[in-house]
Amino acid sequence: MSTVLAAAQDPTLADFGKDPWWLVLIKIVFAFVFGLLATLLGVWFERRVVGRMAVRPGPNQVGPFGLLQTLADGLKMAFKEDILPKAADKVVYFFAPTISVICAVTALSVVPFGPKVSIFGHWTPLQVTDVSVAVLVLLACSSMGIYGIVLGGWASGSTYPLLGGLRSSAQMISYEVAMGLSIVAVFMTAGTMSTSGIVAAQAHGSKLDILGANVTAPGWYAILLLPSFIIFFIATVGETNRAPFDLPEAESELVAGFMTEYSSLKFALFMLSEYVSMVTMSAVTTTLFLGGWRAPAPITTFWAGANSGWWPMLWFFGKVLILVFVFVWLRGTLPRLRYDQFMRFGWKVLLPINLVWILVLAGLRSIEDWDRPQRLLATGIGAGVLLLATLLWPSRKKEPKPTPQEQANSRPHGSFPLPPMDLQVPPSPRTKRVVAEREPANVVAGSDSREV
What we know:
Elements: H1 2-7, H2 21-53, H3 69-78, H4 90-106, E1 114-119, E2 122-126, H5 134-155, H6 159-190, H7 195-201, E3 206-210, E4 213-217, H8 221-224, H9 226-239, H10 251-254, H11 264-289, H12 297-302, H13 311-333, H14 339-366, H15 372-392, H16 404-409, H17 429-451
Antiparallel strand pairs: 1-2, 3-4
Subcellular location: Cell membrane; Membrane
Enzyme class: translocase
InterPro entries: NADH_UbQ_OxRdtase_su1/FPO, NADH_UbQ_OxRdtase_su1_CS
């Protein structure tokens, strides 16, 4: 009984830094192997799911259910010719793919995979390490990974890779802000930046005092902080360059974006970094908003040991798999956004909503210690200010849209000619001649039918 209770304990910051070197090495190798295996299975999973959505089989020839197709593709890339452009910066061109992969794998070091367990007689958390600012380490890794894309596009010495790299830098700046503000809500609610502490804070429901009534909020921050969860996941899709936000690659516009001049293993490393980042951000989302390695509430109600031993790894991997499926689902469903739509969505939609939500959450947290009359007064003042702002908000009259002919007439003299207003190709002379020859017959047929 004591062993079960010990296994069910949540790890704290004091539990890290005490493991022997060989145990730390095992954890590091496990995190690295998890990233590689998740990539191999993730590529196969994406092909199968997208194939299912497109009503086609997907890979099913190499190995059982096509499981070895990804391994065969990796071996094929390894034996392809490695081409180095003449205008490339050789050193940066070589190290750029490794930067993206290293940053993506490093982020897994502060992700908790489970509680404390016994490994060869040593009680240790299923996590490589944890610090008091572990979430900032995750943000730093996601930000540094963009440098591999930017430098890869610049070092190729070509136009299209450079444009793809510049797009990635603007994309990172736009969506990193929204991602950081989403995590602020988690800091405010959990009271810690430690990843193991955030998982522990979601163990039980939060006690909230709303207008004098004690309310038990759900444990998962995906429910308690729903706006932050939605914005954070959208930002992770933008950070990982996944569709519909895969603008740095953009095959229809920039050939292959920042990877245009890469081949062989360097190209494979860029692909590896994308899928490792997808799995890593799914694991981070699970840790911050979905209770981490803890089992869902329906399971814990009839199984007391669901959160002890090695079972929590099953719940953790299940949640990560569901989020990876959502990534694949988005790719198979939504088309790619235009670049101006993408930037407008990040700066004019996600950022204002996030700021307002953080302000509201901070206000709710600040009035928890007030007495009932003060809370009622604050709520009334806030509602009055919101109503007054709504009434006084200047309404802009929608100007009538000019007709296509008016737009054509307003163009300066000597400008380029406009295409037809109805966007139809004018009929050819042959078509006009055929129509003219058929018109008398149509008139005669019409007169006969009317007489009948």
